[in-house]
Amino acid sequence: MAAGGGFYESALLGTIAIVITLTLFEYLEKKCRNVRQKGLTIGIVCTDISSTLLNIRNIATCHEATLSDVDIAQEIGENQVIYHVTAKFEFTKSGKLIDKNCFTTEIMKLNGVSISKIMNI
Are 38 and 95 in contact, with CB atoms under 8 Å apart? Predict the structure, then answer.
């Protein structure tokens, strides 16, 4: 409207201000998105601890995640020992590229494994 009214300088300055503001906000949005939720803490219940940990480590490697802070507790049942594993996974990809649903789905597909809790970190 300013250009139509003959105020070319105002229209040009307004356009430049809008472009700079939008560019700045886009940059800040990407920065904030990459900082948040770069990992998961997952609670797992399983019966075979050694194969479960090996398989989870392989899945984590495929998703460019590192496995750390593993806590293992055991519960002696009537016929078998049940293990409760809590593990922290940190992803090296940017937050936008992480497919956490695919990651947890692959873990749930393992034999004798169920996920009891999932928390973003």
Answer: yes
Q: How many CB atoms lie within 10 A of CB 65?
A: 23
Does the pTM surpass 0.85? The reply is: no
Q: Is 80 helix (H, G, I), strand (E, B) or coil?
A: coil
For 103-117, write each residue's pLDDT tens digit: 899 999 999 999 989
Please report, rounded to a whole number, the percentage of residues in the chain having pLDDT higher than 70.
Answer: 88
Domain extents in the chain? 1-35, 39-120
Give the separation between CA 65 and CA 39, rounded to whole angstroms. Answer: 8
Q: What is the largest CA-CA distance in the chain?
A: 87
Query: For the domain bounded by 39-120, which CATH number is listed?
Result: 3.30.70.260
CB contact at 8 A, 45 and 73: no
Torsion of CA 74, 76, 46, 83, to 10 degrees: 0
